[in-house]
Design a protein that fits this description.
Helices cover 43% and strands 10% of the residues. The protein has a six-stranded mixed sheet, with helices on both faces. It starts with 6 loop residues before the first helix and ends with a helix. The longest helix is centred in the C-terminal third of the chain and has 18 residues. With 260 residues, it is α/β, with parallel strands linked by helices. About 7% of the residues have low confidence. The protein has eleven helices and six strands. It is globular. It has a single domain, classed as Uracil-DNA glycosylase-like domain (Uracil-DNA Glycosylase, subunit E, 3-Layer(aba) Sandwich). Strand 5 and strand 6 form a beta hairpin. Helix 3 packs antiparallel against helix 4. The structure holds uracil (URA).
């Protein structure tokens, strides 16, 4: 078998796969199959039925505990970004290009918490910059709010429950969400928004412990000491344009809440 022990050969092989049309890594994390062969050779199977189906994984450290401790130490948003950058326990991190932290003015009254970065966000390192992001910008512009507003009064601050892109844009798993929540909670505590928008099902589940966004949307709730408005995700609105009237009602409720 060909050996890719030099960086340039590996790079050329990767480019060749991309030329052939490969767009995704198919696992959550890269697997070095040369190592796997070694590992399986060293482990004596107990019985054929007891053999693990996948790679043998090391016991996970207390990822949630580590996340809590790192997040609590962050005194500023820059600290929090640095804490995330040094957190190595989320399985999404190795498969992502970028840490997608936040965008907009952190002094804004409105903090939007989406689900997870997609392909465009992963490439650019900013949340909500793809098609759904353009839709989100239009939605909030319709009530006079923007991520690039000059004054915080008219601003929005945008982040996600998880800062790394899940493979194939799948929803983040419950384990991934649990381990990232201490960072989300600290993020909210540092920004201290007047209002949080829980954008979509994953965000509503993470912040409010409830799913079923089509029922939850438009109902003001409380989480992390803030008023929270669950809303339909802009990606959902792109697929279901009829639901835009519900989103519009929610935007008007937000506008009223802000006294605009
Ligand atoms: N969808 C999200 O929930 N977040 C993003 O950043 C992009 C798309």
């Amino acid at each position: 078998m060909e050996s890719y022990d030099d960086w340039h050969a590996a790079r050329a092989a990767l480019d060749w796969h991309i030329d052939l049309g490969a767009t995704e890594a198919i696992c959550d994390a890269p697997i070095n199959r040369y190592d796997l062969a070694d590992t399986s050779a060293k482990i004596a199977p107990k019985s054929a039925a007891a053999q693990p189906a996948g790679p043998v994984m090391a016991a996970e450290p207390d990822a949630v505990g580590i996340a809590k401790s790192l997040a609590q130490q962050a005194q500023t948003l820059d600290d929090l970004r640095a804490a995330l950058a040094q957190f190595e326990h989320c399985p999404l991190k190795p498969g992502a290009r970028s840490l997608v932290f936040a965008d907009g003015n952190p002094q804004s009254r409105v903090m939007i918490i989406g689900e997870a970065p997609g392909r465009d966000e992963d490439m650019q390192g900013r949340p909500f910059v793809g098609r759904a992001g353009q839709m989100l910008d239009k939605m909030f512009a319709a009530i006079g709010l923007s991520r690039s507003a000059d004054v915080p009064q008219n601003g929005i601050y945008i982040t996600n429950v998880v800062p790394w892109r899940p493979p194939q844009n799948r929803d983040p798993s419950a384990v991934e969400i649990d381990m990232m929540m201490p960072f989300v909670q600290r993020h909210i505590a540092l920004v201290r928004p007047a209002v949080i928008i829980a954008m979509g099902n994953v965000s509503a589940q993470a912040l409010l412990g409830q799913r079923g966004i089509t029922k939850l949307r438009g109902t003001w709730m409380q989480a992390q000491g803030c008023d929270v408005l669950p809303m339909l995700h802009p990606a959902y609105l792109l697929r279901n344009p009829i639901a835009k009237r519900d989103a519009w009602a929610d935007l008007l409720a937000l506008k009223q809440k802000l006294g605009m």
